[in-house]
Amino acid sequence: MLDLARNFRMGNISPLDITEKILEAIRHDPLNAYITVDETGAKNAAKKAGEKIRKENNNPLLGVPVAIKDNICIKQMATTCASNILSSFVPTYDAHVVEKLKKMGAVIVGKTNMDEFAMGSTTNTSNIGTSKNPWDLGKTPGGSSGGSAAAVAAGLCAAALGSDTGGSIRQPASFCGITGLKPTYGSVSRFGLVAFASSLDQIGPMAGSARDVAVLYDAIKGYDPKDSTSVDIGYLPTTLDGLDMQGVRLGVPKAFFGEGLSTNVKKAVKDGIAVFKELGAKIIAIDLPNIKYGVAVYYIVATAEASSNLARYDGVRYGLREKGADDLIDMYMDTRAKGFGIEVKRRIMLGTYALSAGYYDQYYKKASKVRTLVIEDFVKAFDVCDIIIGPTTPTPAFGLYDMADDPLSLYLLDLYTIPANLTGGPALSIPCGFTKEGLPIGMQLMAPAFKEDILLGAGITFQDHTGFHEKRPQWNMM
Amino acid sequence: MKISLTEVEYVARLARIRLNEEEKARFLKELNSILDYMDLLSEVDTTDVSPTTHTQHITNALREDIKRASQSIKDTLANAPAKADGAFIVPGIIE
Amino acid sequence: MEYDVIIGLEVHAQLLTETKIFCSCPTTFGDEPNTNTCPVCIGMPGILPVLNKKIVDFGIKLGIATHCKIAKTNIFARKNYFYPDLPKGYQITQYESPLCEHGFLDIDTTGGSKRIGITRIHMEEDAGKLIHDLKGHRSFIDFNRAGVPLLEIVSEPDMRSTDEADTYLRELRQLLVYLEICDGNMEQGSFRCDANISVRPKGSTFFGVRTELKNMNSFRNVHRALSYEIKRHIDVLRSGREVTQQTMLWGETANATRSMRTKEESHDYRYFPEPDLVPVMVDNAWIGKIRKTLPEMPRERRKRFEEGYGLPGYDADILTQSRDVADYFEDCVSLLDSPKEISNWIMTEVLRVLKGGTADIKALKVTPRMLTSMIRLIDGGAISGKMAKDVFNEMAETGKSSEEIVKDSGLKQISDEGHLKNLAKTILEDHKKEVGSYKKGKTQLIGFFVGQLMKATKGKANPELTNKIIKEILEE
Ligand SMILES: [Mg+2]
Ligand SMILES: [Zn+2]
Q1: In this model, does residue B95 exceed pLDDT 60?
Q2: Which of A137, A252, C11, C223 lies deepest, with the highest CB count within 10 Å?
Q3: Quick one: which H or E segment has residue C151?
Q4: Nearest bound ligand to the CA of residue C147
């Protein structure tokens, strides 16, 4: 992305050239990365950007082709959340982040594939079918922001926005060998992000390098009065020089290296940590006693909130309405039966149950309390370390439909990414190695709230000393 | 068994989702295995632990009472599955 | 067997804010369907609520006025249920921590003053409106009302009769209007009332099975509905059956209550804290600021009018019905210290031209200064009470001062003795015969002579004076 901006200014290539290249590549995309492609809109934006290139020297996003996850609203462009219930929905408004990108002159190529309503970690639950991993078309790109991850890795856009509720940016980023940031809750406005779990959702940047992620993060972060949970602090631009790791304390939780962690991931992450050690970082073993409850807490809180957030899809004001029903309740029941896929139904059922009379205290309330304990674990941990480091996922990308009929074991794979959503803190996934089959492996860095600069600084430093992020997948447009 | 078939049917009704027999059986099985796993939480002592709803401790996100133009009725009804006379339409309701 | 009646009331008051509770759409009533809507209030995907500060101000105001404890930390919750007039599939309301709790409202009953407990007052959003088209077997939805701010005011089950319930409602409505936070219009639905009713054998302390009563859109209907439902309960019990706990709808035309086909067969609302809204902290400074804006409460004012100005209860009651009328009265009294006389004029002429107080007294052409100086003319004998009525009407129409009017129309009363003596003399000259019979003892003819003089002066002669003068001449 930054290279692109540089090349624009040196006149090596124009926004329109690169946009047309990308649009052409998307036409033959074997990855099923996009749900909607806006060719005319993209070309027009690219032309406009081309005219401004010389004037706007320090606007790194001007003319840059970006992709937007399909749960982020764009005015007059279908926003389907990969769901039949919204397949016909066209917003009359822009999400706050989209407004910002448009203002900066970014070229919005289209909307990327995802798990239905961001519920999943494979894009299998998308109503247009799964996306594929550019490193191995037989493997999943991960999810729920799998389309964005695949598109970035394959060069079908220069950078992309995803959303992360339990790992939906970081897990696909690690599966596709790119860099992805789940920002601090409240630092990026959720206005225009179709809600899955309101207290956990956060929009974030996905790109080829930590520097590009930093630039895109700076473009979308900031206070927004339209989102009551947006935090109004002075947001400073992220420095792109990297972080001097001398004396930086890296906390390594035992719990992140326990059973279930595949050996190849374990090795790659250990090597990654060693790189930081070389650069002068202090390695500290830390203990997070309550994160073993993370998955349980998450799947109660997230589904409870989702069961309520998805109640608005009732066929009354927008989206699918199943015809034929002449009774109101039948209209609801048929519309939602036809409009939602199995995973969304499963989670609505679970969340409705967790909130229903007689079970609220046992499930929702209990989970909300244990969430507090998980948060306290991290507060304590960050007293003794600056960054918590470990694997992003227990395994590299798995086969396209491997986990299709085992929801629980699929949920359990989120154990490393979920804590950052429960605490609201920022988390970054960067490539740290490859399996012998050549599949990328990701490493996760976590910091206290609003310390993105430390994470991105460390990521930049790491990438200045390693080449994992530069490796291109077997399928890519370039 | 954590959740019974009747409860599955009750919850589906609450959530306004029609389930066929096959789905009911499937959810009965899956929800029970998930809820069994959730039992993990019962071992945690949460006495005097206050629940977390928000991770950022911000308060009083308030708006001044100042009118702004509403959106055009065209936009309001733009996505309506059924509309007439400037209103949304649903199957009749007898109260 | 005799029965005790137990009534608790739940009032929903629409607030007089410019904009809705979570978006900047106007709250105007009666506009074209769906013209006052936006992505927020029709629950579009990805849209978020932002709380209107004014709602909290108004809630605190009512809380203070009803002696409630104001919550320092306010949390909003989601009440989840499906209904077409509810855009998001949940209503944003307060559940565990209402803004106000443990207050009361004193009302006057036949048995003297009675204290009605206020359980809670909380903030929430209104739903849209459904218009049923039964022959077309479809319903139209208008979301203009969706997101209009409400205060829900829940009373303790402290009322023991339909009259007490009625008095409480009127008192509460007047309070809301006085505080200028609700227009109290029942017909337009800005002041809505539901009731919880149960009966129990006299003297017993347990509570009977209660029913909830809805759809009473006027004081008259509240009265009729409550009476009907109470009788129904008693009849059921007398016949040895059980009252079933259910929601009843008042049917105005049927003049009866009927069981409502419930929206959500089970009332499992799955309340949980609204994650899209952050807590609202109310500190003492905020409460203090609101307290300063509080006017004198109607009930206190009524007492002060009786005791302070020595007005009859009836007068005090009418004058304090509206805050503006009460202010008008006190402005007058500050200019002229004859409260009862002023009260009489306001209760008769002023309220008449205001069509019983429905019109705005601020728009009245007759200012307190004008009214009082007119009353001065009466006291000074310049005009008679009868003339004054005409003067008042002309003031109300033209806005001219009473002095001008009297001068221009020569309405001024003749109180000049000399002039009246001469007039009297000529009248008696013209009626020698009657004078004769008067002298023979037919003294009641005095009225006839006075009448003749009045006729001659078109009623402008000062009656008392005329009477006295004619007597004098005849006795000479
Ligand atoms: Mg209510
Ligand atoms: Zn609105």
Answers
A1: no
A2: C11
A3: strand C149-155
A4: 2
Pick left, alpha or beta for residue A286 (phi over 0 → left; psi -120 to 50 → alpha; otherwise beta).
beta
Locate A268 and state its tokens.
Answer: 């790659």
Contact between chains at A190 and C84 (C-beta distance less than 8 A): no
Q: How far is B87 from chain C (nearest CA, A)?
A: 6
Residue C248 scores a pLDDT above 60:
yes
Pick the residue of B18, B22, B27, B36 with the most A CBs within 10 A to test the interface with A by mutation.
Answer: B18
Tell if the CB–CB gap between B18 and A336 is shorter than 8 Å: yes
The mean pLDDT value for C334-363 works out to: 86
Residue B94, pLDDT above cutoff 70: no
Check if A195 contacts C (Cβ < 8 Å). yes
Residues within 5 A (CB) of ion ligand 2: C 23, 25, 38, 40-41
- C16: number of Cβ within 10 Å: 18
User: What torsion, rounded to 10 degrees, do the Cα atoms A422, A426, A430, A436 define?
Assistant: -10
How far apart are the C-alpha atoms of C351 and C331, rounded to whole Å?
Answer: 16
For A228, which of C48, C141, C271 is closest by C-beta distance? C48
Name the residue among A229, A375, A363, A393 with its Cα closest to residue A303.
A363
**Torsion of the alpha carbons at A66, A72, A73 and A79, rounded to the nearest 10:** 90
**Dihedral sign (CA C202, C205, C206, C210):** positive
Q: Tell me how close the Cα of A304 comes to any Cα of chain C, in angstroms.
A: 9
For residue C15, the CA-to-ligand 1 centroid distance in Å is 14
Residue C93 pLDDT level (bands cut at 50, 70, 90): very high
Model confidence band, residue C381 (pLDDT cutoffs 50, 70, 90):
confident
- Return the amino acid letter for A207: A
Give ipTM to 2 decimals: 0.96
Q: What is the pLDDT of residues A208-262, one digit of tens each?
A: 999 999 999 999 999 999 999 999 999 999 999 999 999 999 999 999 998 889 9
Residues in B touching A83 (Cβ below 8 Å): none
Tokens matching residue A441: 């492996």
Partner residue opposite A193 with nearest CB, options C46, C275, C278:
C46
Strand, coil or helix: what is A118?
helix
pTM of the model: 0.89
pLDDT at C137: 82
Record: contact B73-C35, CB cut-off 8 A: yes
| Top-confidence residue, A97 or C436 | A97
Report yes or no: A357 at the B interface, CB cutoff 8 Å: no
Quick one: pLDDT at residue C124?
Answer: 98
Nearby residues of C74 by Cβ (< 8 Å), 6 or more positions away? C56, C94, C97, C99, C123, C279, C280, C281, C282
User: Contact B18/A231, CB-based, under 8 Å?
Assistant: no
Identify whether the C-beta of residue A80 lies closer than 8 Å to the C-beta of residue A71. no
DSSP alpha helix (H) spans, A284-356: 294-309, 328-339, 342-355
Q: Is the pLDDT of residue A429 over 80?
A: yes
Q: Directed axis angle between helix C162-178 and helix C298-309, to 10°?
A: 90
pLDDT per residue as tens digits for the range A159-172: 999 999 999 999 99
Q: What b/e string do you get for A381-418 counting C-beta neighbours within 10 Å, with b at 16 or more?
A: bbeebbbbbbbbbbbbbbebeebeeebeebbebbbbbb
Report the pLDDT averaged over residues A197-201: 98
Gap from CA of C278 to ligand 1 centroid (Å): 20
Among B46-55, C182-191, C213-222, C406-415, where is mean pLDDT lowest? Answer: C406-415
Determine, for residues A79 and C45 on separate chains, whether the beta-carbon distance falls below 8 Å: yes
CB B91 to CB A228 under 8 A?
no
Catalytic residues of A: 69, 144, 168
Give the neighbours of chain A: at least 3 Cβ pairs within 8 Å. Answer: B, C
Is B85 in CB contact (< 8 Å) with chain A?
no
pLDDT greater than 50 at residue A116: yes
B7, B88, B91: residue with CB nearest A325: B91
